[in-house]
């Protein structure tokens, strides 16, 4: 049996990966269910939020949000899900913005991270 938080997280994840407009609502709903001390799932959900911003062409906001998560001193560190979402974010950046400073930094920080 799955907990409600796990189902909500999965809904946000799937909607984010397929680029569905329902992702933002699903991510917000999942964040509302998780306690503040559930660091790893909350970080992944925040990365999903960053992905939805980039997918909506709010590239600066999305990249800076993602960069803030991976550079946060309180981050629990990389996970397989976070790596997948980070790659999704970077692939969603339009070609004319691939050299955005936050995109370069995000690529550099996450390059070679193996889980």
What layout of secondary structure does this protein have?
Layout (H helix, E strand, L loop, with lengths): L3 H14 L5 H11 L5 H17 L3 H13 L8 H13 L8 H10 L5
Helix pairs in contact: 1-2, 1-3, 2-3, 3-4, 3-5, 4-6
Question: How many angstroms separate the termini?
Answer: 27 Å
Rough shape?
globular
Beta content: under 5%
The number of distinct helices, counting runs of at least 4 residues, comes to 6
For the record, the count of structural domains works out to 1
Which bin fits the share of residues in helices? 55-70%
Q: What average pLDDT do the residues reach?
A: 90
Write the H/E string, N to C.
Answer: HHHHHH
Number of strands: 0
The class by helix and strand makeup works out as: mainly alpha
Radius of gyration: 13 Å
Spans of at least 5 consecutive residues whose pLDDT stays below 50 are: none
Largest sheet geometry: none
What's this model, at a glance?
The chain has 115 residues and is mainly α. The chain has helices at residues 4-17, 23-33, 39-55, 59-71, 80-92, 101-110.
